[in-house]
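Subject: two folds for Thursday's group meeting

Dear M.,

Sorry for the delay on this. The cluster queue was jammed most of the week, so I only got both jobs back this morning. I'm pasting them in the order they finished. Each block is the input sequence followed by the predicted structure tokens. Could you check whether the formatting survives your parser before we put anything on slides? The first protein is the one we discussed after the seminar.
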Amino acid sequence: MSDVIAVRFLVSGRVQGVFYRASTVERAQALSLHGYARNLPDGRVEVLARGALDHVDALERWLHTGPPLARVEAVLREAAGGHEFPDPFTVRR
């Protein structure tokens, strides 16, 4: 059984207005993760995810590509202790 981890991802590129958040929710829910995706004012998308290490890693791999209209430039990963992780995974505004 994998360890449970909590991670914050900051995704930059063309990731707003291309169904990035909605697609992230679908992928994260399929991986049984808790958390959310939300747009940031600077054009990035923030993704908070908590769950099994291998499932969080699978989400991270997907974040580097995202949905078909997205053009991801970078994905920053950092530890995310002290955050709220909704279940099911959702879009935050």
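Second protein, same layout:
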Amino acid sequence: MPHVSYQQWGGRPAAGPWQQQGYPQAGFGQGYGQPAFGRQGPGYAPQGPFGGGPQRPPRRRGGAGTMLLIGLGLIGLFALIGFVATGLHGGSNNSDVAYQNDDYRVPPPDLSPPPLPVPDTYEQAQDLITNSPFYGQQVPAPVRCDATPINVGTASDAQLEDHFTKAMECLVRVWEPPVTGAKLIIVRPSVTIYGSKMTTKCGTSGVNAFYCAADQQVYYSNQLARAVPIVADDKWAADVVIAHEFGHALQARTGILISAKALGQNSNDEQTDLLYSRRLETQADCFSGMYIRAVATSLGIQQSDVQGIEDTYKAVGDDQVTGDPTIVGNHGLARSRVFWGDKGLGSADISACNTFTAPKNEVR
């Protein structure tokens, strides 16, 4: 593993090779709703109830591959999910089940988490996204989860917060063994329920669900919760959403998130930048599938639930959101999101989610 330095991100990025006049407030958004800054960059999905892409920062021009990744700023990635499963076998919550990692005491939300790992060079960034020690780990299963499904379309803010707080506890219990097994640090984010607009250290977001790398917390709009049943008529859709957002938290804590974002910006090529974004998003889909697989026995998720879960992934493909089957977007086509969700649902090996070594046509 390459040497990794640590930097506390906050406010505007430090002056340096990444800094340009007009650089946006630290923290860039991409997610399930409107663009984070209320603007729209070229090549991104138009705004809509379940669409919209991020406004990316200006690209740095030139620079050697060994340039230090100092002053890149914050990254806030957010998105929704959707997937298929093969061989998903859920069951009822049985007291005789030998749940994995059940002795682990999940910590409370960490509102002052340790800094995220930042690679020193572009070469190290490339190594992190393709050869992270995280890929050598496995996700335990079955894992106990007490976050029973709710009707998110009619739930109050207090009920939403309670549900997602319990789901976050389940997510940390599932992911703690592989993260610490890779000698990395896992952090439990808080989940903040908000209305139509939320301003965080990552900027201002509209109706969305997102992970903000600036404070390492998760945010979920109650208006998105009301709309989820319209997009995907599935009782597990909201849990797929939150698991995807935690997938971005995993990418942040492993250095994959900042590395991919840095490499995309440094490419000075929009299509390359979009490709890195799609690799991040489809990997988060894959991680969400692995989580659903891990808690399926505890929550009673059955093979008959797979179609609804698949519809969730499918509904948020770039082509489905825009109605343009030829679009080259920043999240991935429906078929790509289904493909990677399926990968996660069908495997415990985190290496199965290495989208950064996958052929381009698998992250189209």
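Two things I noticed about the second structure. The first strand starts at residue 4 and ends at 7. The longest helix spans residues 270-299.

Cheers,
T.
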